TrEMBL record:
Residues 55-507 form the Nitrogenase/oxidoreductase component domain. Its EC number is 1.18.6.1. Keywords: ATP-binding, Iron, Iron-sulfur, Metal-binding, Molybdenum, Nitrogen fixation, Nucleotide-binding, Oxidoreductase. This is Nitrogenase protein alpha chain. It catalyses: N2 + 8 reduced [2Fe-2S]-[ferredoxin] + 16 ATP + 16 H2O = H2 + 8 oxidized [2Fe-2S]-[ferredoxin] + 2 NH4(+) + 16 ADP + 16 phosphate + 6 H(+). Its cofactor is [7Fe-Mo-9S-C-homocitryl] cluster; [8Fe-7S] cluster.
Length: 545
């Protein structure tokens, strides 16, 4: 069923007036006749609303720093923060030589009550000594969780002293969970720290090959970056570093030599992309390796950027070969999927990226949104100058980056850059809304109440989101597809990944499981209640009881 403003109004009417006013700004019905559709984003979730968001620590240590494999990532805080973020994100990694891969470890200062009272700095310093002695990592990060900021441990000073003592790259990240309105704040903190302390530390002055690139905002969930790299290598690209999936300190420190930076997830890493351009003169290209069409377009745009005839030819040869391999496999899945509808609600980028892949299978996205993205991820980067900063966004400083005197090199002349920008998303991202179909819904920070209401109205055939909200739709008899961890499947990126995705989604529709599920509200009486006016006497009695 198509949705209209009146239906949204009815959903919102259940809220108190102030909450209704707030939530209304986070919901938009796509209407291409209106040039710029505004949406509110990256503001605080209203207390009491069941959101799917995480915290700044999750965004910093969990998302951006965590996948760097040859470093030990210390969590300074009580053990729960480290334990519950231990291997919960599927950022896969292969061990390089020399054999340093510490991703499987959970390393925490395990702060106790006495550390909270008397301070945890000494314990942290001891822990760093121990980590250096036991693991001999290439570098160390320290991430703070909430109590550390509350008691005022100076982790930056501890890191600085340890760096001098051990002669090792040891950096601290003040990413206490409360530092922002979501994990997005943590991405920004991590981006700043990596740029200030690691990128450019290496001594390379020249790229190792003609087409050296970095892939930013790709975390190798379910092996995605391996599939992307397979194709890129076949075309002839050299990937210096993936930030940060399967990434390493050793590679990251020489990231400055690349001739082009690709940006897959704009939300989590656009700060580094922008700073690399300012400091080293390297443009970034917004790519999307989710979906066959999007992958082909990204590969063609890359070839166009380098503008080399041989590379353009090779790109087309590889595309042709890959398509020949996957197209016959895709057909049976398309038959099962065709004509269906989907919800596509993910953290900060995938809500956009997966819509094209759904479309290729014949599935229409009727609702999409992000947990924590900013207005530019919805409306495009043109909106950046118009985003008002508030106390929360000011909390994390924008680094002031200037051109590196020795290493800054314009990778392409200004005129060519301008010409290319008319054709490809070079150092630009146009956001999600413009790609959505008229009448579809865009919801920022979707909560559980609204999820149920939108499901009731739109009746999607598949609900794609994450672990926190998948079980409710599943109990309603709707297939779900986790787009954060892929339900332990994947890779879903690139050509072969599209086949895996098609297979998994088709399986979700075709499984006979749904015939055996009766939602509880269908065969059990529902509890109904009402609020009655009570006399003073009865209220006192009840309170006393
Ligand atoms: Fe970027 Fe991500 Fe995403 Fe993200 Fe994440 Fe993730 Fe995500 Mo889960 S970095 S914004 S903070 S694409 S962990 S790999 S799936 S919410 S949509």
């Amino acid at each position: 069923m198509a949705i209209n403003e009146k239906m949204i109004e009815e959903i919102l009417n259940k809220y108190p007036a102030k909450v209704k006013r707030n939530r209304k700004k986070h919901i938009v019905i796509r209407d291409s006749a209106r040039e710029n559709q505004e949406i509110e984003a990256n503001t605080r979730t209203i207390p009491g609303i069941v959101t799917n968001r995480g915290c700044a620590f999750a965004g910093c240590k969990g998302v951006v720093l965590g996948p760097l494999k040859d470093m030990v990532h210390i969590v300074h805080g009580p053990i729960g923060c480290a334990y519950y973020s231990w291997l919960t994100r599927r950022n896969k990694a292969k061990t390089d030589d020399p054999k340093k891969n510490f991703l499987a470890y959970c390393v925490s200062t395990d702060m106790q009550e006495s550390d909270i009272v008397f301070g945890g700095e000494k314990k942290l310093a001891r822990m760093i000594d121990e980590v250096v002695e036991i693991f001999k990592p290439n570098a160390i990060t320290i991430s703070a969780t909430c109590p550390v900021g509350l008691i005022g441990d100076d982790i930056q000073a501890v890191a600085k002293a340890a760096r001098a003592k051990h002669g090792l790259n040891i950096t601290a990240y003040s990413c206490e969970g409360y530092k922002g309105v979501s994990q997005s704040a943590g991405h920004h903190i991590a981006n700043n720290g990596l740029m200030e302390n690691i990128v450019g530390e290496g001594d390379w002055e020249e790229p190792p090959s003609k087409y050296t690139i970095n892939i930013l905002g790709e975390y190798n969930i379910g092996g995605d970056s391996w599939e992307v790299e397979r194709v890129l290598n076949e075309i002839g690209y050299e990937v210096q570093v993936v930030m940060t999936g399967n990434g390493s300190y050793e590679k990251l420190k020489n990231a400055h030599v690349a001739q082009l930076n690709l940006v897959q997830c704009h939300r989590s890493i656009n700060y580094i992309a922008d700073m690399l351009e300012k400091k080293y003169g390297t443009p970034w290209l917004k790519v999307n390796f989710i979906g066959i069409r999007a992958t082909i377009e990204s590969l063609r745009n890359m070839a166009l950027y380098f503008g080399d005839e041989a590379l353009i030819k090779r790109t087309e040869e590889v595309i042709e070969k890959e398509l020949a391999e996957i197209e016959p496999q895709l057909e049976p899945y398309k038959k099962i999927c065709s004509g269906k509808t989907a919800f596509c609600f993910v953290g900060g980028s995938r809500g956009h990226h997966y819509q094209g892949l759904y479309e290729e299978l014949g599935i229409t996205t009727v609702l999409a949104g992000y947990e924590f993205a900013h207005r530019d991820d919805y409306e495009g980067r043109d909106v950046l100058p118009h985003i008002k900063s508030d106390a929360d966004s000011k909390n994390i400083p924008d680094l002031h980056v200037t051109p590196d005197e020795r290493r800054y090199r314009l990778k392409i002349p200004v005129e060519r850059m301008e010409e290319l920008q008319k054709k490809i998303p070079l150092s630009n991202y146009k956001g999600m809304i413009k790609d959505m179909m008229d009448g579809s819904i865009v919801v920022d920070d979707l909560n559980h109440y609204e999820t149920e209401e939108f499901i009731r109205i739109l009746k999607p055939d598949i609900f794609s989101s994450g672990i926190k909200d998948k079980y409710i739709p599943q109990k309603m008899g709707i297939p779900t597809k986790q787009l954060h961890n892929y339900d332990y499947s994947g890779p879903y990126a690139g050509f072969r990944g599209a086949i895996n995705f098609a297979r998994d989604v088709a399986m979700g529709f075709a499984t006979p499981t749904w015939n055996f599920i009766v939602p509880p509200w269908k065969d059990k009486p529902l509890l109904e209640g009402s609020i009655e006016q009570c006399s003073d006497d009865t209220c006192v009695e009840e309170v006393g009881a």
